[in-house]
Amino acid sequence: MTDPANPQQQRDLRAITADGVWFSAMVGLGEAYVPAFALAVGLGAVVSGLVATVPMLVGALLQLVTPLGVRVLRSYRRWVVLCATGQALSFAPLCVGAWRGEIGLGWIAAATVAYWAFGMATSPAWNAWVTSLVPVGMRARFFARRTRWAQLSLFGALTAGGLALEWGRAQDAELALFGVLFAVAIGARLVSSRYLARQSEEPGLAERHRTLAPGEVAAAIRRAHSGRVLIYLVVMQAAVHVAAPYFTPYMLGPLALSYAGFMTLTAAAFLARVAVLPLLGRLAHARGTRVVLGFGALGIAPLPALWLVSDAFPYLFFLQLWSGTAWAALEFATMLSFFEGIEERDRASVLSAFNLANAAAIAGGALAGGALFAWMEGGREAYALLFGLSVAARLAALLLLRGTEVARHILDLRFRTLAVRPSAGAVERPILATASEPPAADAGNG
């Protein structure tokens, strides 16, 4: 896979993989359990839902300063390592609050905003930097292997976190165990930043960073006929997040799941995504992306209402497998369609714009759902109303798919997992280096 005559390349590829593994450990031990921590410390269902969503909007806004940061530091590596270190330290207030047994809303808000701000600020620079380090001919194989190791790390961390919290609850040390998890998450991200610092950087690479103005981004999207896909994604995310942030409070509240049960259901959706993605690529090659897109869009529509059908754990487990599968199909097909026709040099800027629009829709839906939940003063009736409204809005969003341009070429697209969510399995973003791979086959319109 690597060139034996190029030891620096071998060191770079090992460091890129190790960074992915330790970053994923941080996500599985830290970010995945922040909403549950908000509930455990007594901040309530609305706060639990909002800390998982609204800070993403701040992060998406602050990622726009990445070009300035890269220019000031004259280095992708310096900028990414600085932001990764800041993301690690964002867990510190959560550790202190967990060990004290209390934390104010302002501190948990500041911690989650810092987490997403530093995390999303790394994305454009990391994508550009890693593309320069991995030769074109080996990107598909390399990132496939890196993704498998990262997914294994995330699953292991998520499982360990759930079991540790379950033990902590039995020992009447639940909050202390949250503190331990967040402390280990800090360590994992610091190790990740160390591996980032070990990677090389071509002299002058940062000076060639290309950033599109908002008008140029809009023009690139229009040329690629991706505007309708973007509109659907934004509307759909708003519809979804009227309810999605409140799945964790619902699982740990009315359903009274243990932490082990919560972890199992969350992991089920995540593993379903992992298992089905290769099959979706083959289906897209054989039948076209329209089939995959239709399956995903229809598959996610009734999910919130189905949560109200039964509290039986086997039923909920199956429902999570379905959720992960449907979300994987939807996101795979929409990302292929969205990036179809967008020039490789413009993709980083377009992805930043997509992240901003997506985060705004998520925050808007979550705030609307939170306001309605608070107005109804919580309870099962409030959850039922949120879930029902989300289903209706998802069904209405399907109308926007009529006439949507679908991808004709199927890229071997790989994703970075930024967060774990019970309602969808994960929040993922494409690795742009894999979107640059030559198309393996022409899938047609389907």
Describe the structure.
- This protein has two domains: 1-209, MFS general substrate transporter like domains (Growth Hormone, Chain: A, Up-down Bundle); 212-446, Growth Hormone, Chain: A (Up-down Bundle).
- The radius of gyration is 21 Å and the shape is globular.
- The longest helix has 32 residues, at 139-170.
- Helices cover 71% and strands 2% of the residues.
- The protein starts with 6 loop residues before the first helix and ends in an 11-residue tail after the last helix.
- The protein has a two-stranded antiparallel ribbon.
- It is mainly α and 446 residues long.
The CATH C-level name of the largest domain is: Mainly Alpha
Largest β-sheet summary:
2 strands, antiparallel
Topology pattern, helix = H, strand = E: HHHHHHHHHHHHHHHHHHHEEH
The low-pLDDT segments are: 438-446
Count of separate DSSP helical elements: 20
**Radius of gyration computed on alpha carbons:** 21 Å
Number of domains: 2
CATH topology of the largest domain: Growth Hormone, Chain: A
Spatial gap, N to C terminus? 34 Å
What topology does this entry show?
Elements: H1 7-29, H2 34-40, H3 44-51, H4 54-62, H5 66-73, H6 76-89, H7 92-100, H8 105-133, H9 139-170, H10 174-198, H11 214-223, H12 227-240, H13 247-252, H14 259-287, H15 289-300, H16 303-306, H17 313-339, H18 347-375, H19 380-397, E1 415-419, E2 427-430, H20 432-435
Helix pairs in contact: 1-9, 1-10, 2-3, 3-18, 4-8, 4-18, 6-8, 6-10, 7-10, 8-18, 9-10, 9-14, 12-18, 12-19, 14-15, 14-17, 15-17
